[in-house]
Amino acid sequence: QVQLVESGGGLVQRGGSLGLSCAASGTVASMGWYRQAPGKQRELVATISSSGRQNYGDSVKGRFSISRDNAKNTVYLQMNSLLPEDTAVYYCNAIKWVGSRLDTYWGQGTQVTVSS
User: Fold this and answer.
1) What kind and span of H or E run contains 113?
2) What is the arithmetic mean of pLDDT over 69-87?
């Protein structure tokens, strides 16, 4: 079992920046962030593999940056040029191989609110 502890988030004005971090309690493969706004489905924000390969959702490309520290089992999300439509609960995600099985873990979520 892997525990994910998120930090960061909060309230920021349009055009501002925020950072999120998420620490895993053990070694994992891919880590990333997803978000869910009220009345909408959860969507990909960004993921990063253990080798550093990054993947971004179309709506955040060029504005958000994901990174990770494998020694600390921690993933970071730097969010710049924030827009009101970025308002959502952001969930940390981690994937771990257990033998031939792929287990997925989620954090508790952290609120990001962008005011106009």
Assistant:
1) strand 110-115
2) 97
